[in-house]
Every structure is written in C-alpha cells, then in structure tokens.
Amino acid sequence: MRAVHQHHDADATSTETRAVSEAPSPWLALRVLLTVAAAVLLLVGSFFEWASGTDGSEVAVQAFWSTDAGTAGFFSSAGLVTAICGAVIILGLAFRGGWLTRFAGAVALVAFTLIVIQMGREGSLDTLQDVGMGLWFVLAGGILALIGGFFPSTRTVAASTASTDTDTDDSATHSHTD
C-alpha cells in the first residue's frame, strides 16, 4: 500500500524589538522627592544635637573611630561629613543610574553607625533616647537616599516590528511515497 505524505514549510514570523528613544520615567518625581528630602535631612541633621548636647557640627571627625575625640570647628567636624553627603546626594540627581545617590546614602548610614558604636564604647549610650535628634535625621536621610537612588530617571521606549516570511517556491512542498 502506498502512503503519500506532504509537508508544507510553515510561514515563519519573527519579531524584532529595538530601543527607539528614552523618556522620563514615571518614577522620576518620586526619585527627586526622596533625594531632596534625604539631602535636607542630612544637612539639617549635621547642625542638630548628636549626643550629650553636642551638635554634629561641633563633634570632631575623630569621633568616627575614637571615643575621646572631643569637639572641633565645623570644617573638621563629623557634621561636615554628613553635610557633604547631603550635597553629594543632590549631585546624584545629575546621573541616570542613581549610583551616586545610593553611595552617599550608604556613607551617611555608615557615619550614623560609627558614631552610635563609639557612643556605646564610651558608655554614653544607655538607651536609644541618648541618641540626639540630629543623628536620627542622618539615619533617615541615609535611608531615603538609598531608596530614592533605586528609582529610575528614564525609561527606554521600545518598538517591535514583525515580519512574515512566506514560502511561495514550489520546492517548499515535499512529497514522499512509500
């Protein structure tokens, strides 16, 4: 008995996606809001009380690694470090990726952590109430900067094109006879 099988090559459809342009992200407003709030918190926190009635602008920069750092003027203070973080956070808005904002936020969190560790080492940290309002502002600013740095500033608008390949050649049909 003879069996006849016919095969037709199926029409092939391919889709190509490519970036057409970049547009502002719908999350841009939230990124700007969080970034500005973080910078304000860091700048204000630099001049508020950090511990034992001492403002961040008076705490010596050595307080990050030493328990007996003492006081200093603003240009050699730990408050200057957090104020610079606030300025760098704003500068981070100029870059699309948000990496600079996240970096400055992380530095602010490290500054908060180091000061609190040194307070604990010197014995002036019995409860969280011993941490001054300025340090809480630094912590909040660092967290907001980290969060704000992850929101995109632009989005890529893509276009898709589909093409269909149809075989009109007679050689596209194959017959087999058994």
Radius of gyration: 30 Å
Query: What is the average per-residue confidence, as pLDDT, rounded to a whole number?
Result: 84
Spell the H/E element sequence.
EEHEEHHHEE
Q: Widest sheet: strand order? A: 1-6
Shape: elongated
Number of helices: 4
Structural class: alpha+beta
What does this structure look like?
By secondary structure, this protein is an alpha+beta fold. The chain has a domain at 39-153. Helix content is 40%, strand content 22%. The protein is built from four helices and six strands. The strands form three sheets. Strands 1-6 form a two-stranded antiparallel ribbon. A two-stranded antiparallel sheet has the order 2-5. It has a two-stranded antiparallel sheet with strand order 3-4. Strand 3 and strand 4 form a beta hairpin. Helix 1 packs antiparallel against helix 2 and helix 1 runs antiparallel to helix 4. The longest helix is centred in the middle third of the chain and has 24 residues, at 99-122. The protein is elongated and about 95 Å long. The model has no long low-confidence stretch (mean pLDDT 84).
For the structure shown, list the relevant keywords.
single chain, 178 residues, alpha+beta, two-stranded antiparallel sheet, two-stranded antiparallel ribbon, 4 helices, 40% helix, elongated
Short recap of the structure:
Helix content is 40%, strand content 22%. It is α+β, with helices and mostly antiparallel strands and 178 residues long.
Task: Indicate the topology.
Blueprint: E1 4-8, E2 12-24, H1 28-45, E3 49-51, E4 54-55, H2 78-91, H3 99-122, H4 133-148, E5 154-165, E6 173-177
Helix pairs in contact: 1-2, 1-4, 2-3, 3-4
